[in-house]
Amino acid sequence: MDDQAVMCLLDKTAEKASRTLARLTSRRGVLSALGKLVLGRAVLPLLPIDRTYGRTDPHQTDATQCDYWKYCAMDGQLCSCCGGTGTQCPPGTEVSKVSWVGTCLNSQDGKSYLVSYSDCCGRSSCGRCYCSANVRERPGYDMAIHNDVNWCMANGNASYHCTVSVIVGVLE
Amino acid sequence: MPSEVLTRYAAWPAGFLCLAAAVAFAGLPTEHAGVAVLKPDNGHRLYIVDKFPPAHGIDSRIHVIDGDTFAILGQMSNGHFGSFALSADRKTLFDATTFFSRGDHGTRTDVVEYYDTSTLIPRSETLLSGKRAMTNQYSVFLVESAESKYLLVQNATPATSVSIIDLSKKAVLSEIATAGCFGIFAASKVPGRFSSLCGDGTALTVDFDAHGKETGRRRSGALFDPDRDALFITGVKMGDRTLFVSFLGNVHSIDFSGDMATQDSPWTFIDPREQAAHWRPGGYGNIAYSPFNGQLYVGMHPNGFEGSHKNPAEEIWKVDVARHQVTGRVKSDGANYLQVSKEAHPLLFSVNVKEDIPGSVTRYDGDTLQVLGTSKPDLLEGGGPIWVE
């Protein structure tokens, strides 16, 4: 991503953060964590969360299944089916420079986690293990929680291959 | 090569000619390879993208299908996460997409190709800056302006902006920043004006001059609540207004014709009993409107929940916009996209995806919702979001 794009992204992040402050109680902390996420810092914020959300299966612990608790806002093909793992892109690809987030409940410990979904880029579609869940996903006017765009968009090699997910924080 | 073999090869053409002549004399006519002529568009021609899950990640296709027979008529390229739109006169298909010089890697080229819909051949193109939004197909990312003067292209890096193309020159005039907003809604009468929905529930309206230079922008008041009841980004035109449905089934009629967006009071078509059963809209482009009969068509599913907004339809509902009432319901095998023909007695088309249906098309009577025909289940192989124009 070039400097201009970085600045644009930071501008956007700042704008979102401002708006988030105005409606923090309804946003439930997802977007307030975005700025930290975009800057690549794993954080452990203690933010409010509405536990009525979360209709994917929080009991599911099998990461090879689409209803795995951490995939509540996943939209893509699991990299674990494509030569990578749940958190690692397959060899020969590169991790997307930008990503979207979801907030998923893990019933094992009763906590909700901020999950970042990254696309793996530079190869054509893996074509295996497609999963789609959309808890708290929103259209592209809420870009940070939108999963219908190719998040390889900021990479030089922008073709989409598969998707990984990583925990970046816990919400209380 | 021995001379005997050479002689044998040299004798083959003469042998073939004799054989061909013998066949001709036997009664079958000779044949000539050529290119089929596309039948004229009667308004029922469908353009359907077949691209996701990205089985065709870098070479998605726009299938051209006869809506009356479901016959495949041809195909156009849609590159990587391309968007497309038809011109108002249906003579040109705008295809904004991305190609890489080495297939799935290498130099990225973003381009708008202008396909002649009578031949399916691209006649010209406009190179873009490389910021084009690579997204699933929705109708709001590549939009022709009023009077067909400009083509508006959605960008996302993920910072959002809109590129303005002068269609008379097929040249990019400018790029206008629309931070925090997404989707393009062209004003119905003013060529140099578009709006975009924003993450705080407002809409941004931008004016620009003949050089593409921004001349003004205004933000509306709050139109919707993205947290509690977000709007699907696909809107359908109803005169000066654009109709949207929300995740919970409220209809927002937003007027983008002025220099600031306004809306009437939202209303719902879901009665309390159906709300109790959590009937909700769902799918990717599951909304259509016919100005001829004043009916809105929405893909619906029961037992909705936070996150079910992309669930394919279990029923399609017909809603009388003037009366705010449901006037018909029909079962659906997973409609994901809807489109209605532009005629007095309209046809409704749905593109369907379910576990056992990779991609089919159904044709309905737009007034009665009677099913008039359904294609084979694997007419389309993509199995995911598909667009019908």
Jot down its keywords.
heterodimer; A: 172 residues; alpha+beta; Electron Transport Ethylamine Dehydrogenase; four-stranded antiparallel sheet; two-stranded antiparallel sheet; B: mainly beta; Methylamine Dehydrogenase, Chain H; eight-stranded antiparallel sheet; five-stranded antiparallel sheet; 28 strands; globular; disordered N terminus
Question: How would you describe the overall organization of this protein?
Answer:
The complex is a heterodimer of chains A (172) and B (389). Chain A is an alpha+beta fold and 172 residues long. Chain A has one domain: Electron Transport Ethylamine Dehydrogenase, CATH 2.60.30.10. Chain A has 3 helices and 6 strands. Chain A is globular. Chain A starts with a helix and ends with a strand. The N terminus of chain A is likely disordered. Chain B is mainly β and 389 residues long. Chain B has a domain of 121 residues: Methylamine Dehydrogenase, Chain H (7 Propeller), CATH 2.130.10.10. In chain B, the strands form 6 sheets. In chain B, strands 21, 22, 23, 24, 25, 26, 27 and 28 form an 8-stranded antiparallel beta sheet that branches. The longest helix of chain B has 23 residues. The chains are: A alpha+beta (172), B mainly beta (389).
